[in-house]
Design brief:
This protein is an alpha/beta fold and 352 residues long. The protein folds into two domains: 18-37 and 259-351, Aspartate Aminotransferase, domain 1, CATH 3.90.1150; 40-256, 3-Layer(aba) Sandwich (Aspartate Aminotransferase, domain 2). It contains ten helices and 13 strands. Helix 5 links the parallel strand 5 and strand 6 (177-180). It is globular, with a radius of gyration of 20 Å.
Length: 352
């Protein structure tokens, strides 16, 4: 870092994104992208929008609000669209965390949470997952801070039932509970159903996974009107035109194309079951996943060694070095052909 870098950030450990190789020889199963392209309607809308890129995008994301309200069954006034769900989360850290309201989240979860806390200089507390990598709602009872829960959790894929989310909301009426539902479309019930009863709930969703728009960078926040106004205040203080016109159009198309969404989502869920079964047949332990990835370990090889050997074979999976999960790897659910290629490569490695 330069001598001009702010002292405030000199000890900051940035988020480490998954590898994005420049050559196309790799089979990428490391960043939980959809193996399917955006819907034809999303592509059509984005192409049509390209002709107006000389103009600023709509800061209110009007077309997205209309499509989102219809798809999610909530009023437009309860929606905010952002440049990825990461931006929604960033806004939430800025709006609802400070020196007197620390951020609270599990010790094993989405790696951006501690980074956002450090960037905004707010204290944070990490609550250990149970030995089976589940969350105990009782651990979050009566918190004095803002709670962030990825559900299904990442990188484990483990789902917290809606009843558990509700118990956390009930036990923290004076605290915001942010439920990060990046993977909810692949299993489980959304906390959106709880919004009418709980003013302290913020649900965060992404278009990167089930909507096949990871490269578009589009996220959404769903909450009561007062919380949305808080988030809009942050948006308009940083970048009012945060969602570009082509992404906005693509997002509207992705929301409207329910047939394509259901088809690709269903295929990923089916492929997840196949991948889990094949890994178990090779002796792996696989956590129950409600996401578009599985979290697995083998008694025959370390997580890091498997990751490195697969990389030699031009297959990328995600390995984390945290001690509690160092034996595991997170593997994105791909197409049937991709799964066959992966399993064949793993079988070869285990036989070496």
């Amino acid at each position: 870092m330069s001598r001009f870098f702010s002292q405030r950030y000199r000890d900051l450990t940035p988020y480490t994104p998954g590898e994005q190789p420049k050559d196309t020889l790799y089979l990428k199963l490391n960043t939980n992208e959809s193996p399917f392209p955006p819907s034809p309607l999303a592509q059509k809308y984005a192409k049509n929008a390209s002709g107006s890129l000389n103009l600023y995008s709509d800061p209110e994301s009007t077309i997205l609000k209309k499509a989102g309200a219809k798809a999610l069954g909530v009023p437009e006034s309860r929606l905010i669209f952002t440049n990825s769900s990461d931006e929604t989360l960033n806004f939430a850290f800025m709006a609802f965390c400070d020196e007197s309201r620390p951020a609270i989240f599990p010790d094993i979860t989405y790696g951006f949470y501690p980074v956002f806390a450090q960037v905004h200089c707010v204290p944070y507390r990490e609550i250990p997952l149970k030995d089976d990598f589940t969350i105990d709602p009782a651990d979050y009872s009566g918190m004095r801070g803002t709670i962030f829960l990825a559900n299904p959790n990442a990188p484990t894929g483990v789902l917290l039932p809606l009843s558990a989310i509700e118990s956390i909301l009930k036990s923290n009426p004076e605290s915001i509970v942010v439920v990060d539902e990046a993977y909810i479309d692949f299993g489980g019930e959304s906390a959106i159903a709880l919004l009418p009863e709980y003013e302290n709930l913020l649900v965060v969703r992404t278009f990167s996974k089930s909507r096949s728009l990871a490269g578009g960078r589009l996220g959404i926040g769903i909450a009561n009107e007062s919380l949305i106004r808080d988030l809009k205040t942050i948006q308009y203080s940083i970048n009012p035109y945060n969602v570009n016109s082509m992404t906005m159009a693509a997002g509207a198309g992705a929301l409207e194309d329910t047939e394509y969404f259901e088809k690709t989502r269903r295929e990923i869920i089916e492929n997840r079951a196949v991948l889990t079964k094949k890994l178990k047949a090779l002796g792996f332990s696989v956590l129950p996943s409600a996401a578009n990835f599985v979290f697995a370990k083998s008694p025959k090889i370390s997580g890091e060694a498997l990751y490195l050997k697969l990389k030699e074979k031009k297959i990328l999976i995600r390995h984390f070095s945290l001690p509690r999960i160092a034996d595991y790897n997170r593997i994105t659910v791909g197409t049937s052909d991709q799964i066959e290629t992966l399993i064949a490569a793993i079988a070869e490695i285990l036989e070496e």
